[in-house]
Amino acid sequence: MVARTHVAELQLIRGGYLEIPSLCLTRGQVQRFWSLDHVTSEALLAELVSVRFLRHTTLDTYVRADVV
């Protein structure tokens, strides 16, 4: 579970992927796009994967789980 202090960042990432359904980003791109440190981005991506909002691809990118 993500710390309460990172709920806003979690919502920003979700919002970005909702606004652009075809978004396909690496961990580093997520970090830069939302100005996150490594630890925070890892935790947020893990949370979004665990709730099946995102999926981690074999190309080491993160995409919406419901978009084919």
Instruction: Report the CATH C-level class.
Output: Mainly Alpha
Total of helices: 3
Strand content: 5-15%
CATH architecture: Orthogonal Bundle
Q: How many runs of DSSP E, i.e. beta strands?
A: 2
Low-confidence stretches: none
CATH topology: Arc Repressor Mutant, subunit A
First-last Cα distance: 26 Å
Q: What is the number of independent domains?
A: 1
Largest sheet: 2 strands, antiparallel
Shape: globular
The mean pLDDT is 93
- Structural class comes to mainly alpha
Question: Can you offer a commentary on this structure?
Answer:
This protein is mainly alpha-helical. The chain has one domain (4-64): Winged helix-like DNA-binding domain superfamily/Winged helix DNA-binding domain (Arc Repressor Mutant, subunit A). It is 49% helix and 9% strand. The protein has a two-stranded antiparallel ribbon. The radius of gyration is 11 Å and the shape is globular. The mean pLDDT is 93.
Furnish the topology, listing elements before pairings.
Elements: H1 7-19, H2 27-33, H3 38-50, E1 54-56, E2 62-64
Antiparallel strand pairs: 1-2
Helix pairs in contact: 2-3
